[in-house]
Specification:
single chain; 257 residues; alpha/beta; Rossmann fold; six-stranded mixed beta sheet; four-stranded antiparallel beta sheet; 10 helices; 25% strand; globular; binds adenosine-5'-triphosphate; ABC transporter ATP-binding protein; transport; P-loop_NTPase; nucleotide-binding; ATP-binding
């Protein structure tokens, strides 16, 4: 494709809606993720982040709306679009009777990689994610953080152009988190695109160049981190937009022991 004709957005999601019974989880979200950006999605519990990320990675079909990945319609042409994507879903269920090394190998083979390519990438990923010692341990015996890291390895073994990672740092120790951040930064420096959801504002502020603040299934603010936070910190801007701070007058029974 002529580079000048390449779509500017790695992910272009418009008018996404999703309801679960009577709960409207996502109420008309647009998410425009520029190619080569490191994009954070933040919002309170239940805001609709996981539902949105599931819809932009083809794991959940929207009730309405449109998603394209580098210009390919995700729902019309899922094979092409999903080849471009590496998705780390929330609470991912893995085949945990496999070892970490087997699981990454299996993911790579399913993605159509050659056996020798899979073997070398598996070794590299285990090393990069501090899982070398655990490579021959069953995933069912992994800690939450180890499980998160091996899930990340399975999501990226095929070399996606866009990573969509739901809470990638949750339960991960600080050294591993720093290693993962380095991997993601290098991926972006090489022209890749990363979307992460997180509750840690300071992390998003430090790591991401773009951010969307989501609450009650809607985008309250989106753009570059500088545009969204203005003269405040991202956390202050988040609290200002989302509200919900409580005074600590209640729970007296907890304070009187
Ligand atoms: N499978 C489901 N069935 C019913 N309701 C659901 C389902 N998944 C999500 N919801 C509801 O949709 C809303 C949005 O949930 P979602 O998991 O997308 O939020 P979130 O922003 O990722 O929250 P958190 O930060 O707590 O992970 C919530 O009200 C939730 O209860």
């Amino acid at each position: 494709m002529d580079a000048s004709a390449a779509p500017p957005f790695a992910i272009e999601a418009r008018g996404l809606w999703r309801r679960f019974g009577t709960t409207v989880a996502v109420a008309g979200i647009d998410l425009l993720v520029p190619t080569g950006s490191f994009y954070g999605v933040v919002g309170p519990n239940g805001a609709g982040k996981t539902t949105t990320l599931s819809m932009i990675t083809g794991l959940l079909r929207p009730d309405a709306g449109h998603v394209s990945i580098h210009g390919t319609d995700l729902w019309a042409d899922p094979d092409v679009a999903k080849r471009l994507l590496g998705a780390l879903p929330d609470g991912v269920r893995l085949f945990d009777r496999l070892t970490g090394a087997q699981l990454i190998t299996y993911a790579g083979l399913l993605r159509g990689l050659d056996r020798d390519v899979v073997a070398s990438r598996t070794g590299e990923l285990l090393a990069a994610l501090d899982l070398e010692q655990a490579g021959s341990t069953l995933v069912s015996d992994y800690s939450a953080g180890m499980t998160k890291k091996v899930a990340l390895a399975t999501a990226i073994v095929h070399g996606p152009r866009v990573m969509v990672l739901d809470e990638p740092f949750e339960a991960v120790d600080p050294v591993s988190a720093a290693n993962i951040r380095d991997i993601l930064r290098q991926f972006v420096a090489g022209g890749g695109t990363v979307v992460v959801s997180s509750h840690v504002m300071e992390l998003v502020e430090r790591m991401c160049d773009h951010v969307a603040i989501v609450a009650t299934g809607r985008v309250l603010a989106a753009g570059t981190v500088d545009e969204v936070r203005g003269t405040a910190t991202l956390e202050d801007r988040f609290v200002e937009l989302v509200g919900g701070r409580r005074t600590s007058e209640g729970l007296q029974w907890l304070h009187t022991s």
